[in-house]
Amino acid sequence: MNDTGALSDGLRAAEEIVRTLHTLYDGFVRDFERSGVSPLTFFQCWCLDVMRKRGPLPMSEAAESFSISKQQMTRFADEMEARGLVKKRLSPDDRRVIILSLTRAGEQALDTHLDMMTQEQAERVSRLTSGEARELLECAARFRELLEKYWG
Q1: Whole-prediction pTM value?
Q2: DSSP code per residue over 14-61
Q3: Cβ(76)–Cβ(100) under 8 Å?
Q4: Which helix (H) or strand (E) holds 2?
Q5: CB 110 within 8 Å of CB 52
Q6: What distance in Å separates the CA atoms of residue 17 and residue 114, rounded to the nearest whole number?
Q7: 8 A C-beta contact, residue 86 and residue 77
Q8: pLDDT tens across the length of the chain (152 residues)
């Protein structure tokens, strides 16, 4: 395949990724948040998950990771700390730096949220035939694998 064909395939793939992510967000995140079942929003869940994977983070680095301003991060961290989900502490190396870490309550809230989301999706998947469910599993696993490669 020539470079033009690869670019065309790449552009089509990028467009399909955007459409798929919108579909996932609309059908998965919005429905779940509207249900009011979980005390966490999708954004809160995502932030807590990042903190669990990466460990304690300086607030400025967290803001950058979450694509929000430092002011928004401060409000978010204050709210999450008030709920006992994260802990703020001063960096021992630079007392101007505030480090955010996930608390045990934050881990439990995240686990509960993820379990609830999984249960809701399991109910939806149960409407598919076993062949369709297997195909969805294979496609979803491959999609995630390629996205992880795509986003590095």
Answers
A1: 0.74
A2: HHHHHHHHHHHIIIIIIHHHHHT-SSS-HHHHHHHHHHHHH-SEEHHH
A3: no
A4: none
A5: yes
A6: 23
A7: yes
A8: 555 565 688 888 889 888 988 888 777 777 777 777 778 888 888 899 999 999 999 999 999 988 899 999 999 999 999 999 999 999 999 989 999 999 999 999 999 988 888 888 888 889 999 999 999 999 989 988 988 888 77
